[in-house]
Structures are given as structure tokens and as C-alpha cells.
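call fold(seq) -> C-alpha cells
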Amino acid sequence: MAIHMPRIIKKSSTTGDVPKGHFAVYVGEKQKKRFVIPISFLNQPLFQDLLCQAEEEFGFDHPMGGVTIPCSEDVFVDLTSRLTRI
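ret:
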């Protein structure tokens, strides 16, 4: 029996490609890259910590249309890959 694990859908550049059950985040320190990730990540303590850091740095105003995460792309991908193993 296979177990379905949540994962990053893809790096994304268009705004109309967010499937149901996912949301867009912008990741990066200087140049932001857009990722579409499962909403199930919102329940994970590691991701909640990352969101708290984003709130401290950017507040709640996200002019790009998605949540902005203030970390490098490599750190984000590493963190989300750990979330898929939980």
C-alpha cells in the first residue's frame, strides 16, 4: 500500500496555476522565486516557525500575491523536503 506524501508541486511563475489544496509562496533573500506548496504544511511546526520569521520581517502585506518567506531557496527546499518525510 502506497502512502501519499505532500510535496512541493513546482517552482511556478504564473499566478493562475495554484491547484485546490495548495498555496503560493515567494522564497528568496534578494530575488524571489514562487513555489506552490500543499496547505498541509501549515500544520507543521517547522513551517509555522518559518512563517513567524516571515511575519517579523515582512508583516502581513504581501504585494506579490503570496506569502513571502525570508530565506534562501536552498534552505526552503531542504525544510519542505523534511516536511514530506514527517
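The longest strand covers residues 22-27.
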